[in-house]
Amino acid sequence: KDRPGQPPSETDHLGAAPPQPPDCRNRRRPKPKIRSKQISNLPLNQTEMKKHPDNGAIASSSKIRFEHSEESDESSSGEEEVDIENELADIPFEELQKARSDGTLAVHRKSNSEKKSKRANKNRPVEMSSKKPVSRFREVVQVPKKVVRDPRFESLCGKLDVEGFKKRYNFMFEETLPAEKAELQKLLKSSKDPEVIKELKNRISSIEKQLKSDSARHRDTQILAEHKKKEREAAKQGKRPFYLKKSEIRKQRLIEKYNDLKASGKLDSYLEKRRRRNAAKDRRFMPYSRPTNEE
User: Fold this and answer.
1) Can you give the pTM of this predicted structure?
2) How far is 16 from 1, CA to CA, in rounded Å?
3) What dihedral do alpha carbons 177, 182, 187, 190 form, nearest 10°?
4) Domain boundaries defined on the chain
5) Are residues 138 and 149 in contact, defined by beta-carbon separation less than 8 angstroms?
6) Of 83, 211, 244, 252, which is the most buried if we count CB atoms within 10 A?
7) For residue range 133-161, what is the model confidence (pLDDT) as tens digits?
C-alpha cells in the first residue's frame, strides 16, 4: 500500500507495474541511403574530415562525443561505400569512363528495355545476346533487299510513247485475239464436259471484252484527234480553244455508234435488246407481292 503523504504508484489491478517505454535517447537513427546515381554525395573520408574540422564539432563540443560520432560515421560510411560499390559493379566500364571524361560524377543507369541491338558496321551482323534463345526462322545469310521497279514510274525506262505502243502491239487485237476466239468457239462446239464448257465460255467472254474496250479506246482517240484538228484551225482564226471532257467524248461516241447502226440496218434490233435489258434491271428492284391469307 502507498504511504501517506506520497503519490500513489502506477500499478495495474494485479499489483504489477506497467511496462516502461524504451529509452530512445541512446538509440541511433538510421541514415538515409545514398542513391547510386549520385557519386557526388559520397561521405567524407578522414583526410577531408581533417580539412573540415567543423563537421564533427557541430555535433558536440566534448572530446568523447566527438570521437564516438566519428567512429559511427566511419562505420556507416563504410557500409554505404560497400553498397555503392556493389551497385556500381553492374554499370559498364564505358559509361563510367564517359562520365569521368565529361567531368560529371553522376552516372545514369540505363534500363535493359532501352538497350537496342546495333551493328558496328552495315556489313557486319548484329551482335545478339547469348542468353536469349535464337528463333528457328532467323535469317542467317543477309540477302540484299529486293528493289521493285515499276517501269511506268521509273525514269530509267524512258517516257511512254502511246502511239508507238499501239502501233507495235496492234497485232494482238487484230490477229491474235480474234484467232484465239475462233479456236475456242470450235472447242466449245465439240466439248461435252460442263466444266470445260463453262471455262471456254469465260475465256471467250474475256476476249470479247478486250476487243470491245480496244475498239472504244480507238474511237475515243479518233474523236480527240478530230477535235484537236478543229481547235487548231479555230485558234489560227483567233478563237479560244475548247477542251473536251470525258462526258462529251462519251456522247460523241454514242452518236457515232447510232449512225453506224442506222446505216447498217441493225438499229431496231439493238434498241429492242437494250429495252429488254433495262426492263430486266427494273424488274429486279420491284417489290414482290405479299402473300394474302384467304380465309
Assistant:
1) 0.42
2) 13
3) 170
4) 39-102, 161-241, 245-284
5) no
6) 252
7) 877 776 777 788 888 888 888 888 888 88
